Amino acid sequence: MNYKKYIILLLIPISLISCHSIKVNHATMHTASTTPMALGVIGMQHNKMMHSDFKETAIPTYKEAIRVGVNTTTFNLDAYKAYTQHSKNNKQGVTYVDSLKTKPSFLQLKITDRVTLLSELKKEENQATLAYLKNQENARMVTGVSIALPESLIIEISNAEAVFLINEKYKQYQLSLVRDGKSYKTIDFSSATVFGYRLSHFCWGISGKRKVVLLDIIDEKASCPTNTYKNAEKAKEKMDYFKL
């Protein structure tokens, strides 16, 4: 048996998969030919041998502002390559020279208030989205993004007392910057370049009223908590079993 050839064939899919992700502060972020437009959108992740893609399938309505965590980090070569793949014309004017000690910055954003996020998804205006999720075990939500912006905006967002995800325009999301308890600026996600993202999946369980309900949203690599399931139908089966 040609072991060298076998090892090469084994490594090919691993190397291809690694091309679809980057490491940012020890966290793995997806990259894809089509990236999601913003935090909070729902869609399907398609991973293939030669490319990966994220297809948005639902854009929930968020009437309450959702807290977002902000981390400023510097580009490395992999992150810069991921950025340039999604911004061929360098929309944000990022200047990166690998040999220079000083590197340009970008932002990592992640949804930190999962309680408000869950509450918003359960509201009347999102019932169609919730029904869709019950039938789509593989649906994922974008709960973290790496974004490039002009340096002045990066500094402004980093210096805000708090940052929230808001939904002031129809099917469009913005970042709200807060100072002294008041919003003083909003930034459209459309003005940023999203070049990396993290996904979360949905966990279903049984409510006190014996109904199948959405109980948690957790990282895509994590397992659902005890007595909750990625598959809403499995939660229903458990409920039906206990009715016997």
Automatic annotation (TrEMBL):
User: Which superkingdom, per the lineage?
Assistant: Bacteria
PROSITE patterns per record: PROKAR_LIPOPROTEIN
Q: Residues of the signal sequence?
A: 1-20
Keyword list (alphabetical) reads: Signal
What is the protein named?
Answer: Lipoprotein
Organism, scientific name = Aquimarina celericrescens
Q: What is the lineage of its organism?
A: Bacteria, Pseudomonadati, Bacteroidota, Flavobacteriia, Flavobacteriales
